[in-house]
Amino acid sequence: MNFFNNILNKAAKAVTLEDKIFTVSIDKLHFDEDYKAVFKQEEDKVQRIAEDMKANGFDKSQTIIIDENYAILDGNSRYMACQIAGITKVPVIIKKFESRKDALLYELGLQMNRRNIADDSVLIDTYHTVAAMKDEEGNKLFTDVEIAEKLGVSPRQISKAKEVDLKANDELKDALKNGEISLNKAYNSMKEEMKAKEEVPKESEEKAEEVASASAEVESETTEEHAEEKTASPATESSPKAKKPSSEKPAVEKLSLKFKPEDFALIQNAAQTANLSVTEYAMNILMEAVQASSAETVSEKETA
Questions:
Q1: Count of CB atoms within 10 A of residue 37's CB?
Q2: Is the full-model pTM beyond 0.85?
């Protein structure tokens, strides 16, 4: 096969067949994986073309474009349909290129002109396909700037597509892939979601600090009140009703609201249920503790 192809190649060059239509046996054509990947072959579309070929033959206006090695640049679906329909000879045009990269750039141009490249799902799919291509040494064949330029979009759009692919949730990715939303909308939605996730912990920390500060103030005031009461009515060791100092910490001190940010959601939910702000809810708890503590002090005085 290679020997025969070499003869055909030399003959094609000898008679200057480049950019001219001529007929070849379908057996001489073959796929190139990179060329084939640029244009996606859809099974139902190939079947439709095959049925049309069975009824009407090969449409000669839809010439298959090949390179000098008879690899198909454009017409993979038609080639596959020919195999199904039993067509043995097809019209082709040979295109010459200085490099494989030039051949692929040519294909990208066809892709842009033929398919709805403005459709973001097509653009992203094409980008990923081409970005994965490598040269003989394993290096990337195209830069993002080259791909963007050939696809007629800005490098910023390519950057957005990559970020959405990397960071967006599956729901957004599927909606974009199915053409339900645009790339810009998917990108903005992703950014808003990320921002919301960043703000929740920050807001919780700020509120926790606010509650903790308010708690500290109430504790300080309560401690001062207890100190004043003890100064006004000192207990003596000889007094039969004098109490030993308790090792228990005051109730208010136990309720010191030094919450961790991750625990704050519990307080927040309770406050919402009570139709109060978090600060109001926490202060209510503290004031109840203060009142209970004051009542206990009054009771102790009356007993004394």
A1: 19
A2: no
Q: For 4-13, which contacts have Cβ atoms below 8 Å and span 24 or more sequence positions?
A: 4/28, 5/69, 5/70, 8/70, 9/68, 9/69, 9/70, 12/68, 12/94, 13/68
Q: Which helix (H) or strand (E) holds 262?
A: none
Q: How far apart are CA 188 and CA 158, in angstroms?
A: 15
Structure tokens at 301: 């005085």
Point out which residues pair with 182 in neighbouring strands: none
Distance CA(100)–CA(35), nearest Å, equals: 10
- Whole-number Å distance between alpha carbons of 65 and 21: 9
Confirm if 154 and 148 have CB atoms less than 8 A apart: yes
DSSP-assigned letter for residue 97: -
* Residue 100 near residue 139 (C-beta atoms within 8 A): no
> What is the spatial distance between Cα 67 and Cα 65, in angstroms, rounded to a whole number?
7
For the chain, give percent helix, strand, coil, nearest 5: 65, 5, 30
For residue 262, count CB atoms less than 10 angstroms from its CB and return exposed for 0-12, middle for 13-18, buried for 19 or more.
Answer: exposed
* Listed residue (30, 17, 89) closest to 8, CA to CA: 17
Rg for the chain, CA atoms, rounded: 39
User: 10-residue block means of pLDDT along the chain (304 residues)?
Assistant: 57 58 93 83 89 93 92 92 95 91 83 62 78 82 83 84 86 84 89 81 59 57 54 49 49 48 67 76 72 63 58
Q: At what angle do helices 183-232 and 278-303 cross, to 10 degrees?
A: 10
Which residue bears the tokens 């080639």? 79
Burial class from Cβ neighbours inside 10 Å (0-12, 13-18, 19+) for residue 151 reads buried
Cα angle value 115/116/120 (rounded, 5°) = 125
User: By C-alpha distance, which of 199, 48, 37, 204 is closest to 125?
Assistant: 37
